[in-house]
Design a protein that fits this description.
Layout lengths: L13 E8 L4 E13 L2 E14 L4 H12 L1
Antiparallel strand pairs: 1-2, 2-3
Length: 71
């Protein structure tokens, strides 16, 4: 998995946008990966900053728009 395999340095963060366009809907999630110190141990920390989805826009809608454009 993407988040588990990340090798982060201390005091550094990585912000990533995950985007999924399915056949009937689209989803997007913004995630921040960082390291958190708990006592003497440093552990990975994953924070979901934002997420959104649209059930009325998907790959089928993009296909239809392309057909109309090219027809």
């Amino acid at each position: 998995m993407f988040g588990i395999d990340q090798k982060l340095e201390a005091n550094k963060t990585l912000t990533v946008l995950f985007y999924n366009m399915g056949g009937m809907d689209s989803e997007a999630t913004v995630v921040r990966y960082s390291l958190m110190e708990i006592g003497k141990k440093t552990t990975p920390y994953i924070e979901i900053l934002s997420e959104a989805s649209r059930r009325d826009v998907g790959a089928a809608d993009v296909d239809l728009a392309l057909v109309r454009l090219l027809a």
